[in-house]
Amino acid sequence: MNAHANNNSLLRNLVRGLWRENPIFRLVLGLCPTLAVSTSLENGLGMGVAATFVLVCSNTVISAARRAIPPRIRIPCFIIVIATFVTTVDLLMNAFAHELHGKLGIFIPLIVVNCIILGRAEAFASKHPALHSAADGLGMGIGFTGAIALLGATRELIGSGSVTLWGEVALRLPGGEDRTLILAILPAGGFIGLACLLALMNHIQSAIAKRRGGTFVPPEHLDCRHCIVCSLRDPSSR
Amino acid sequence: MRETLRMTCVLTALCLAAGFILAEVKKITEDPIAEAKRAAGMRAVEAVLPPHDNDPGRDRVEIRAGEKTWVFFVATNAGRYAGVAFAARSDRGYGGAIDVVAGVTAGNTVKGIEIVAHKETPGLGAKIESRAFRSRFEGKNALDPSWCRVTGDDRARGRIDAVTGATISSRAVAGAIAEGLSVLGNHIGTLSRPREADDERAREQ
Known about the structure:
The complex is a heterodimer of chains A (238) and B (205).
Chain A: H1 2-16, H2 31-37, H3 41-64, H4 74-96, H5 98-104, H6 115-125, H7 130-160, E1 162-165, E2 168-172, H8 187-211
Antiparallel strand pairs in A: 1-2
Helix pairs in contact in A: 1-7, 3-4, 3-6, 3-7, 4-5, 4-6, 6-7
Chain B: H1 2-48, E1 60-65, E2 68-77, E3 80-90, E4 98-105, E5 110-117, H2 131-134, H3 167-192, H4 195-204
Antiparallel strand pairs in B: 1-2, 2-3, 3-4, 4-5
């Protein structure tokens, strides 16, 4: 019975990041790499996989060491753990996925300061057991990958007329290269594209809520009101 | 005081562990990274060289010209000079340095160029990678690179139409290639000399 409940909450921790608390669409975290790298589907997927790897590893290690880390220096400790994994990914990618590494460039090292990773370390991994933290990291990572890949595919399709996956054209815009809108793959297109996707998300959620006879109100714990990352108070004194 | 000591110890231990792990990862990845970089460069060199049966990566000639050292990759077919390729870099790209490779045939015409690395704007400057732009260099005289300028800069002689909206990127590529070609023109005698002669000279010394 107990094991069953445990499995249930493990699954809940895994699924939460996919949609209900999707890091980009719902938590609106980690926007710097999201906007900068989502110029194509492949870039988005590469960034997502790299961030997911870091997220799972850092969540697991931080959770396992959470009782040994003194609360006052928890943020520097988290950053050291995260930076170690990011550098590992950077080196491995450079060695075994050289071309992708060239495309993602500076954004791989910048995963260190990706809010999603520090946010999950602070909000989840430092309070929950290792297995659950790994599940949370994996779910959040997949949610991040899905969102950035969707944005990347949209921008690539509108901006260059076709979507490439594994070096082959997977989807082509009717009208081909003549009907492209370069704006979509320029930086401004990132903001516009993300805004459109967020508006679409909100529209869908409002429609669902309306059908159920209510209005959509984002849960309080999903916006700034709950956040404790910026406050360096000792959590034991809260 | 005790807490300070504990914090110091934890942070030190954590940093030591991180340093150790990173040192190990670096050791493992060092060779594959160097190999991947070399392979990417050599793929570009192979793509711009005429057919050959030697390894241009081994038959390379380094030439100092001014501040820079140029590396020329010489291609031979059945022992005869077949062409040469060189790597050039421009620091005048819109987003930073642009690395290019150009190949020249035994008849001293440009065989083709490849963009190895760049940081130009996607959708604009990045179009220097396109076949349409790169093909504008093909078949031109490699020994007199006066054509190798953007038409907008030199209406009389320039033969390289810039990519629309990306004149700076196009100018950087043309500039790097022109510089490489002029070095090539000064040393074409040395480069196209039969390799056996080179070996004999090495033996004499």
